[in-house]
């Protein structure tokens, strides 16, 4: 019965690492999309403000 506890800890650690990996990947993707779209949105806003 003592062996069950380390297995649970390993499973929890693996799950948390996977969660951090998914969150990190989503953050990088969102940052990349924002990096590509933000200058275009700013350019459109500047063009509309000038017009």
TrEMBL record:
<keyword id="KW-1133">Transmembrane helix</keyword>
<feature type="transmembrane region" description="Helical">
    <location>
        <begin position="20"/>
        <end position="38"/>
    </location>
</feature>
<keyword id="KW-0812">Transmembrane</keyword>
<keyword id="KW-0472">Membrane</keyword>
<protein>
    <recommendedName>
        <fullName>LPXTG cell wall anchor domain-containing protein</fullName>
    </recommendedName>
</protein>
């Amino acid at each position: 019965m003592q062996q069950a506890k380390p297995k649970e800890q390993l499973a929890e650690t693996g799950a948390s690492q996977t969660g951090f990996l998914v969150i990190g990947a989503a953050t990088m993707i969102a940052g990349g999309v924002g990096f590509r779209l933000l200058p275009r949105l700013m350019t459109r806003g500047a063009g509309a403000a000038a017009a």
